[in-house]
Write a structure and sequence with these properties.
The chain is about 55% helix and about 5% strand. By secondary structure, the protein is mainly alpha-helical. The protein has a 3-stranded antiparallel beta sheet.
């Protein structure tokens, strides 16, 4: 089997060597970016930016978080996180709560309205994606299913769900996003 063919026989891309980590990473990043753009469409149609959607998803998965912890997970500055949390609270998707262990600390928690909105967007996106997957051949669906555990592990790593918390940074990261 030559370069550009996956183990299952499903082509990866013309001239791509799936055994080379750099080639695989470049191809994966390109494909995930393109697919991610489509998957964010429901949120964007409803005025929810990708960062807002990710914040809601993280709070849904992890429960209430300190604002700084959510900022670190999202890779945004404290000032951007303040603006983001203000918007999320204003829309009624998130509420600020005092930390039971330390009343000086404020946590962000997903509201019922936020959970419902997130579920609506997930359902809308899943319906659209189901239509596309339905059009795939059996072998392509099997290859996609086989890749899911690895993709999930990579995603969890980037969202800090399987790694130890990192030490606080001294300043903003060079690729830090701003949200407002």
């Amino acid at each position: 089997m030559g370069p550009g063919a996956a183990v299952t026989g499903v082509p990866v891309g013309p001239g791509k060597d799936v055994t080379d980590p750099a080639s695989l990473a470049g191809e994966l990043r390109s494909v995930v970016d393109r697919l991610g753009h489509h998957l964010r469409s429901p949120g964007l149609r409803h005025g929810i930016t990708p960062t807002r959607l990710t914040a809601l998803a993280v709070l849904s998965r992890r429960g209430p978080l300190r604002q700084g912890d959510l900022a670190a997970t999202l890779g945004i500055s404290p000032a951007s996180m303040t603006r983001l949390s203000d918007v999320l609270v204003e829309h009624g998707w998130v509420e600020r709560r005092r930390d039971d262990a330390d009343q000086r600390v404020c946590q962000l928690a997903l509201t019922r309205e936020g959970a419902v909105r997130l579920e609506e967007l997930r359902n809308e996106g899943t319906t659209e994606l189901t239509g596309q997957i339905d059009g795939l051949g059996e072998q392509e669906r099997a290859a996609l299913g086989a890749a899911l555990p690895v993709l999930r592990r990579l995603a969890d790593h980037y969202l800090g769900e399987t790694t130890q918390p990192s030490a606080p940074r001294a300043g903003p990261a060079p690729n830090e996003r701003r949200e407002g």
